[in-house]
Amino acid sequence: MSAPKATKAHQSRSVARLAAIQALYQMEVSGVGAEAVVREFVDHRFDADMEGEPLAQADEQFFAQIVRGVVADQAQIDQMIAKRLAKDWRLDRLDATVRSILRAGAFELSHLKEIPTEIVIDEYLEIAKSFFEGVEPGFVNGALDAIARHERV
Questions:
Q1: Does the predicted model carry a pTM greater than 0.85?
Q2: What count of other Cβ atoms lies within 10 Å of the Cβ of residue 15?
Q3: Measuring CA to CA, how many Å separate 76 from each of 12, 39, 100, 149?
Q4: Is 45:19 a contact under the CB 8 Å cutoff?
Q5: 2-151 — its CATH code?
Q6: Which uninterrupted H or E stretch holds 13?
């Protein structure tokens, strides 16, 4: 009986991570604040359905923790990411979705150390693969791995 529960909990965190990426992206392109976006997702998006099918349940608290955490520590998180970029490459040159993925992943790696490193990296790598077919997933994997090696010693 506990295996399906673990799977459901894992799935709800996966949905929360994807929603956090979408929220962080939305905040960046629209300038809307964290609390407004968290409220919008909780009030309107998490109970929505796609083409008549209900969306998987999201861990709403985990979602909010990621979004608020990235915003609260964005300067520190951006520094962690910037250190992994090629020389003379700036964070603002990255695709906004890649920035959102890296920020959320770096937040989890640096602040939610009870979550195993492999799970964090794998989850964000899968999200990157769902958005990109080129070099971006490999870049996300490498950057998060480097951040993990520094943050989780």
A1: yes
A2: 19
A3: 27, 25, 14, 16
A4: yes
A5: 1.10.940.10
A6: helix 2-30
